[in-house]
Write a structure and sequence with these properties.
CATH superfamily of the largest domain: P-loop containing nucleotide triphosphate hydrolases
Oligomer: single chain
CATH topology of the largest domain: Rossmann fold
Helix content: 40-55%
Distance between the termini: 88 Å
Largest sheet: 5 strands, parallel
Radius of gyration: 44 Å
Structural class: alpha/beta
Number of helices: 26
CATH architecture of the largest domain: 3-Layer(aba) Sandwich
Strand order of the largest sheet: 2-3-4-1-5
């Protein structure tokens, strides 16, 4: 005798055996009791949730020879024929293979005739959404006003593809996905009747693989029994189905919460060793963290999570030590990693980096604790945070130190050096003062400003008239700056050196030097070998050194301030950058 698979052997034969669809069973039974039986029914829902089984049970309840009752007897010839699929008055039609208008016309011809033996002639059309538009149109009139001896029962997994004109003529019943606990309970009943030894953990894995479908779960159970026999071990089920072991997920989250990066990387190594798909494991870990998040946020999750009691107990124990904010941040990291896994060539590396980032994630500090720390700083920190801004305003910035240029050593030492003043750039000549193209000779220039540093003043003067030449001079080192000789050194191979040697640049520089020094100095451009140390720093280097010194002074003053030092101690931070208050407020 051929083997009958569990999905067919244990197909529900009564409404009481229909698992997870109590809302449908109760409605149909009440309709039969009250005599309010519609002429057309539409059963919708996912695969394997009991649509066709419910259609057969309803057909048996309506045609049972012992009378219409909420539960068929399953012993009379009418019930046994419908169960075996041999009843001549119950026609099961596959909508996927009978899609044409001619098939529906043949059905309309059969509708006219009275049933041969049973009380009703019942048409069960499975996957009705596969019918063509013309077939639906041909069925409309018959479906709206069928003879009293005819009942239609349609089943479909895609009700949105059924025309609204058909939907409006049917009583619609939406079948739900079967909860995990009910699937496990039904599987437990079946394996006890079959004499099979299997744990609840293994049955939960089988049920989860079925994804809310009883038929898929029974098919997976058949596969497991073919592999393991009557004695089923959990390890064999994990190996056969390729599912991620829940213990591996628990270990991964435990390593993350304990901030143990070595253990987290060891989890990825185990995933690779067992041959699990990296993205599948990431998805399972996301689902596991989601369960923890919902459990932490809600507490009572009986209607929110599709988990067994043993899994819920383990989740509650792990969720006790996990802050809600941290769980949200962990989920964000994993969701970003899951998106990257879809396109990367290094899936293991992406998962490792995600777990390391989660394990080293700094714990979130609640806002109320931050406010308490700020209050503590105000109470303890020296003159207080409120006085810090006034102290910074009262402290003048350090005066820049300008080293004298080469060639200025012949000035008297007693002559006080005035501090550098901001130099206004000479105004560019307007269009009205521009001489005609045929006029020659130097243009009138504004009087140069004097600050005591001839080289710096000369560069500013050149930038006012020739910005490009002035920028190049800033890169040069002043070797001699007098009214008789202007010697400038540049690094060997510098672009500025080769540009200034151009004849046009030389002429312009000569003219500007004549205007500035009121003399005709000899201009000498020298190439300096690196490492000789003969060149003083250029203006750019001086400015950079002065900025660094000023920033160092500001940072040292900020670090020594009592309010700042107290804030660093309380928050455990470091001073990264100091911005003067005047510049900060102007931004």
């Amino acid at each position: 005798m051929s083997y009958l698979v569990l999905a067919r052997k244990w197909r529900p034969q009564t409404f009481s055996e229909l698992t997870g669809q109590e809302h449908v069973s109760q409605t149909l039974q009440n309709a039969i009791d009250s005599g309010r039986i519609a002429h057309a029914f539409l059963f919708t829902g996912a695969r394997g949730v009991g649509k066709t089984s419910s259609a057969r049970i309803l057909a048996k309840a309506l045609t049972c020879e012992q009378g219409m009752s909420p539960e068929p007897c399953n012993v009379c010839p009418a019930c046994t024929e419908i169960t075996a699929g041999t009843a001549v008055d119950v026609l099961e039609i596959d909508g996927a293979s009978n899609t044409g208008v001619d098939d529906i016309r043949e059905l309309r011809e059969n509708v006219k005739y009275l049933p041969s033996r049973l009380r009703y002639k019942i048409f069960i059309i499975d996957e009705v959404h596969m019918l063509s538009t013309n077939a639906f149109n041909a069925l409309l009139k018959t479906l709206e006003e069928p003879p009293p001896h005819v009942k239609f029962i349609f089943a479909t997994t895609e009700p949105h593809k059924v025309p609204i004109t058909i939907l409006s003529r049917c009583q619609r019943f939406d079948f739900r996905r079967i909860p995990l606990g009910k699937v496990v309970g039904r599987l437990r009943h079946i394996v006890e009747q079959e004499g099979i030894a299997i744990s609840d953990v293994a049955l939960t894995m089988v049920a989860r693989k079925g994804d809310g479908s009883m038929r898929d779960s029974l098919s997976v159970l058949d596969q497991v029994l073919a592999f393991c026999g009557d004695q089923v071990r959990d390890e064999e089920v994990v190996s056969l189905l390729g599912v991620v072991d829940r213990r591996l997920l628990m270990d991964a989250t435990a390593a993350i919460f304990d901030r143990d990066t070595r253990a987290a990387l060891g989890i990825v190594a185990r995933v690779d060793e067992f041959g699990y798909n990296v993205r599948q494991f990431c998805g399972e870990l996301i689902d596991h963290l989601r369960n923890l998040l919902i459990l932490k946020a809600v507490g009572d999750v009986n209607d929110l999570l599709d988990l067994s009691e043993a899994e819920l107990a383990a989740l509650r124990q792990q969720a006790d030590g996990a802050p809600l904010d941290d769980l949200q941040r962990h989920l964000s990291i994993l969701l970003r990693a899951d998106g990257e896994l879809a396109h990367t060539s290094f899936p293991r590396l992406v998962l490792e980096m995600a777990l390391v980032r989660m394990a080293t994630l700094a714990p979130a500090v609640p806002v109320d604790k931050l406010l308490e720390r700020l209050k503590k700083i105000e109470e303890v920190g020296g003159s207080g945070v409120a006085d810090a801004r006034a102290q910074w305003r009262a402290t003048p910035p350090a005066s820049p130190v300008v080293s004298p240029p080469a060639g200025a050593s012949d000035r008297p030492a007693s002559t006080p050096t005035s501090p550098p003043q901001p130099v206004e750039r000479p105004a560019a000549p307007t269009a009205s003062s521009t001489p005609p193209s045929h006029r020659r000779g130097p243009q009138p220039a504004p009087e140069p400003r004097r600050t005591g540093d001839d080289w710096a003043d000369f560069v500013v003067y050149v930038k006012g008239g020739k910005p490009r030449l002035g920028s190049m001079l800033e890169q040069g080192s002043p070797l001699a700056v007098t009214a008789e000789r202007l010697e400038i050194g540049f690094p060997e191979g510098a672009f500025a050196l080769s540009s200034l040697k151009d004849s046009d640049s030389q002429a312009a520089l000569k003219e500007l030097a004549l205007q500035f020094f009121k003399a005709d100095p000899a201009i000498v451009l020298r190439s300096l070998s690196p490492g000789t140390g003969e060149a003083p720093p250029n203006l750019l280097e001086k400015k950079r050194a002065e900025d660094e010194r000023r920033q160092s002074d500001l940072k040292q003053a900020a670090t020594s301030h009592p309010a700042v030092s107290e804030a660093l101690d309380v928050f455990g931070g470091t001073l990264a950058e100091v911005v003067p208050l005047g510049r900060k407020e102007s931004q």
